[in-house]
Task: inverse folding
């Protein structure tokens, strides 16, 4: 099992009660990625978000900042809102991160959880499906190599185009990011792409039929075994003691979800629902190293995922607490998982 | 329940397949009309809602069903052929959710409840608003009659007979139905309302909306 972290950026609370600037939030992310690498975590995902409390809008740039100060950790987007991006530019940026990190870049393409990027980049939400389908096709076409030839409706055709730099391995891994819509699982399998589930509520084990659907669709389309991989991102936080970790994190979670609820018209989460969601079986992986490793192992028995990564920095969680949680994930949770599940083999794609 | 329902579901997404599973578990015949943009809907159903059957066409599905449910994104709901719904019991499970759907100018202008707005697309349909207030994962927690923690689901509509059928069906698949009134009263089930997103018992639900239990 690979372990990791993902973040949309956050404005950490300072000792004086104020919060850091959005610029400092970007520097905090690089610091977090660096620590994650040092403590042996395998993955860090960034963005894409365009809000004041969660300002990590330019994932590849943050990852490039981290690329030259880290050694082993894989650096990805979580997710790239492909519909409002230029796939040529996305590929160039992540191929550059791949170069600077000696082959550690990944792209996860997805819908994302919000639509701010549409007005921001001048796209019409009503074109969503066409934009997404065509741009994914273009991104995959570019990854196949130069020269790039592509036809579609969302931009001019590409004729013998050259997209550089090229990754040394030949490819940047491209994942499909999705929530619970079964049609997305089916599609990822049909395309033979690895799939990344974002699970932020309910009972994650109930994603088992979706992972099954994904694997069956991949088998039916004869996708190579190395491409058939499942990763899972959930909210979570690790502290020395389960109880105090849940108490500390509750304020941050409540803060973010109340804010979101106010915008979208749902009630703030109650402590009762939080206690249920942070208990075994729930979607919030908040607790002690023992609790978190047990819960990941239990979920693994349902989903067979090869990577689990946590979004820790909700609310205005102080940077110190964020870093401590990353450290515990690497130094305490990881050895427990390796003891139980063995070391996750390197994936060699050709 | 002696009568076994045949239900038809528009949309094989999160809500559509969750309801399909509940229907199958309750012994319903379940038909599903999937997205015009996707293929292999039957393969999908075989894995995530075994027993559910992809309808040959929307028309076939509507004809065969005791009630149909609309579970597609609100912003795409205008793709459905509403002409099919004349005389049919239609459950609108959709939420207009600008953060996901984008702003739909017509409904912003209309100042109507979401389901009243949708119902205008065929006033001769027998419209019932229901199943919109809980997340799809909570919907999956439906439970047998008499079980502790059984969840309440509100319903609203102008056709009393249609509501009776939908109530019986909700009960069949594992919910405690609560009638909140006419279709216009369905606004109380929408986003921003007192019960939206909350897993409540029948009593709590009625209390939150200030309804006296009959
Ligand atoms: N998610 C929840 O927890 C929840 C709970 C209660 C109510 N709701 C409401 O229920 C509706 C569906 O939500 P969801 O979460 O299930 O969305 P979803 O997972 O995105 O699924 C909707 C499905 O409907 C398909 N579709 C689109 N147009 C269609 C058409 N004309 N005919 C048949 N299928 C079509 C979509 O395919 P494409 O990929 O082609 O669009 C998609 O697969 C929304 O209005 C939502 O507000 C959601």
Result:
């Amino acid at each position: 099992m690979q372990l990791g972290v993902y973040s949309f950026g956050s404005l950490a609370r300072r000792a004086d009660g104020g919060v850091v600037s959005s610029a400092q939030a970007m520097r905090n992310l690089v610091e977090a990625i660096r620590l994650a690498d040092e403590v042996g975590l395998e993955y860090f995902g960034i963005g894409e978000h365009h809000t004041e409390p969660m300002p990590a809008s330019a994932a590849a740039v943050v990852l490039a900042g981290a690329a030259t100060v880290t050694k082993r950790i894989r650096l990805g987007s979580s997710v790239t809102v492909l519909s409002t991006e230029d796939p040529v530019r996305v590929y160039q940026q992540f191929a550059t991160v791949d170069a600077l990190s000696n082959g550690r870049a990944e792209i996860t393409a997805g819908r994302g959880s919000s639509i701010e990027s549409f007005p921001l980049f001048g796209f019409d939400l009503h074109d969503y499906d066409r934009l997404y389908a065509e741009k994914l096709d273009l991104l995959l076409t570019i990854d196949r190599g130069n020269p790039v030839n592509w036809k579609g409706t969302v931009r001019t055709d590409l004729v013998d185009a050259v997209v550089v730099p090229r990754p040394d391995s030949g490819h940047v891994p491209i994942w499909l990011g999705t929530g619970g819509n079964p049609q997305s699982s089916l599609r990822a399998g049909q395309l033979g792409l690895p799939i990344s589930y974002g699970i932020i509520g309910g009972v994650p084990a109930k994603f088992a039929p979706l992972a099954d659907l994904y694997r069956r669709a991949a088998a039916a389309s004869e996708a190579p075994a190395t491409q058939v991989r499942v990763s899972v991102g959930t909210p979570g936080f690790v502290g020395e003691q389960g109880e105090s970790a849940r108490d500390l994190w509750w304020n941050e979670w409540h803060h973010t979800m109340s804010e979101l609820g106010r915008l979208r018209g749902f009630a703030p989460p109650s402590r009762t629902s939080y206690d249920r969601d942070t208990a075994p079986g729930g979607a919030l992986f908040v607790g002690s190293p023992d609790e978190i490793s047990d819960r990941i192992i239990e979920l693994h028995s349902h989903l067979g995922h090869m990577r689990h990564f946590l979004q820790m920095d909700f609310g205005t969680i102080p940077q110190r607490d964020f870093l401590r949680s990353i450290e515990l994930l690497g130094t305490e949770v990881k050895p427990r998982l390796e003891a139980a599940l063995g070391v996750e083999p390197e994936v060699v794609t050709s | 329940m002696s009568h076994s329902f045949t239900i038809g579901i528009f949309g094989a997404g999160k809500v559509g397949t969750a309801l399909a599973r509940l229907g199958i578990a309750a012994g319903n015949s379940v038909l599903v009309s999937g997205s015009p943009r996707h293929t292999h809907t039957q393969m999908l159903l075989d894995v995530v809602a075994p027993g559910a059957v992809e309808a040959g066409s929307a028309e076939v599905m509507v004809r065969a069903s005791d009630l149909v449910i609309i579970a597609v994104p609100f912003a795409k709901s205008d793709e459905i052929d509403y002409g099919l719904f004349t005389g049919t019991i239609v459950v609108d499970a959709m939420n207009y959710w600008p953060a996901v759907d984008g702003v739909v100018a017509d409904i912003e202008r209309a100042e109507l409840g979401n389901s009243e707005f949708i119902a205008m697309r065929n006033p001769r349909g027998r419209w019932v608003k229901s199943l919109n207030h809980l997340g799809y994962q909570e919907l999956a927690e439906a439970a047998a009659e008499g079980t502790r923690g059984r969840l309440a689901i509100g319903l609203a509509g102008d056709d009393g007979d249609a509501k009776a059928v939908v109530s019986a069906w909700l009960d069949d698949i594992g919910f405690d139905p609560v009638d909140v009134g006419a279709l216009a009263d369905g606004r109380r089930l929408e986003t921003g309302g007192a019960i939206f997103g909350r897993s409540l018992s029948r009593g709590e639900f009625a209390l939150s909306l200030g309804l006296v239990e009959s």
Summary: The domain at 2-341 of chain A is CATH 3.20.20.30 (TIM Barrel).
